[in-house]
Amino acid sequence: MDIQRVVVHDSVGVVVAPHRLVETLSDLSVPVEAGGTDPDLGPTDAVVTFGPHPSFLDAAWVHGIRAGYDEFPVERYAEAGVVLTNSTGIHDTTVGETVLGYMLALARRLHVFRDRQRAREWQREPYDTPFTLDGERVCVVGLGTLGTGVARRAAALGMDVVGVRRSGDDHAHARRVYTPDDLDEAVSGARFVVLAVPLTTATEGLVSASTFAAMPAESYLVNVSRGAVVDEDALVAALDDGTIAGAALDVFVEEPLPEESPLWDHEEVLVTPHSSAATGRYHEDVADLVRENVRRVRAGEDLTNRVV
Asked: Mean of the per-residue pLDDT values for the chain?
C-alpha cells in the first residue's frame, strides 16, 4: 500500500472540527487536507472519518475515529482491497471515568439533587436510599479496552468486580470471569451491570428480559457499548415494573434518542448523547493512531487496529 495523501472527511465534525484534525496531522510526511462531504479519492489516498461513505471504496485505507465499526461495509471493503482501521485503545480513561461518574451519581443520588436544585427544593433522600460503591459488585460485560478501563477504576474504589468475556480467561481487575453463556449468573449478584462489548451478530440483543429478571431489584444497567446490545423494550418494561432500579445510558437503538422515548421520563435513568468518550484532546489521540499507521505503511509493517 502506498499512501500519498490523507483526507479528513467532514463527518468527523460529529466529534471534532475537521480543521483541528487536519492541523494536528500537519506534521505528517504526506499532505493532509479537508475532504468535504463527498471527496474525490484514489488508490493512494487515506481517509479519516466518523462514518462510511460510498467514495471510500476508491481509497487505499479508511480510518474510523471510533472504536465501533458496525456501520462500515466491511465485506465490501475486503472485496475492494480497502484497508479499514479503527480507534480502539484510546477510550479506556474517558469511558472508564464516565462510567464511574454514572455509578457515583446513582449511588450518591447526585442526579436527584441536581433536579431538585433546578426546582429550588431543599430535600434529602430517604435514609436507606444512598449507598457507597465500596463493596458493591459490578459486572463488566466485555473486558476489552473499555471494560478494562471500567474494571480497573471500579476495583480501585473497592468494588467487587466480576466480568464477562468470550474466552472466560482471567482478568487482572476482575475477581471472577464468566462466559456469555453464563450471563444471567454473572449479573445475578451485581448492583451495576456495565455493557462494554462491540455490536456484533453475537451481541445484538444480548441483554434481554431474562437478563433483567436475573438482576437484583436494586441494580442498575450502564450501557456505553451500542444501543442494539440491549432489548430496549425489555429495558423500559424492567424500569416500569421495578425489575431493576435504574439505568445510565449513553447509547440507544435510535440516535438521537426520540423525544417520545419513555426513557427520558424515568427519574432513575441518566441519558447522555453518546458522549462517554468525549474529551478536548480526542483529535490528538486519533492523530497519534493515524500518525503511527502512516509510519507503519512506509515501513511495510502491519497496521495497528486493522479490521480488514
From this structure: 98
DSSP, residue by residue, 86-145 = --TTS-HHHHHHHHHHHHHHHHHTHHHHHHHHHTT---PPPTTS---STT-EEEEE--SH
Q: Rounded to whole angstroms, what are the CA distances from 8 to 4, 36, 76, 196?
A: 14, 8, 21, 28
Give bridge partners of residue 171 from the DSSP assignment: 174
Q: What is the greatest pairwise CA distance in the chain?
A: 65
**Cα separation, 255 vs 203, whole angstroms:** 19
| pLDDT given at position 195 | 99
Question: What's the CATH number of domain 92-271, 3.20.20.70, 3.90.1300.10, 3.40.50.720, 3.40.50.1950?
Answer: 3.40.50.720
pTM score: 0.96
The pLDDT, as a whole number, for residue 200 is 95
Q: How many CA atoms lie within 13 A of 136 on its CB side?
A: 22
Q: How far is it, in rounded angstroms, from Cα 255 to Cα 148?
A: 26
Task: Summarize pLDDT for 31-41 with one digit per residue, the tens.
Answer: 999 999 999 99
- Crossing angle between the packed helical segments 92-108 and 145-156, to the nearest 10 degrees: 50
Q: What is the pLDDT of residue 72?
A: 97
pLDDT value of residue 35: 96
pLDDT at 260: 98
What pLDDT was estimated at residue 106? 98
Taking 70 as the pLDDT cut, the residues of the chain under it are none
Instruction: List active site positions.
Output: 226, 255, 274
224, 95 contact by CB (below 8 A): yes
CA–CA separation, 165 and 113 (whole Å): 36
* CATH topology agreement for domains 5-90+279-299 and 92-271: yes
| Domain boundaries along the sequence of the chain | 5-90+279-299, 92-271
CATH architecture of the domain 5-90+279-299 equals: 3-Layer(aba) Sandwich (3.40)
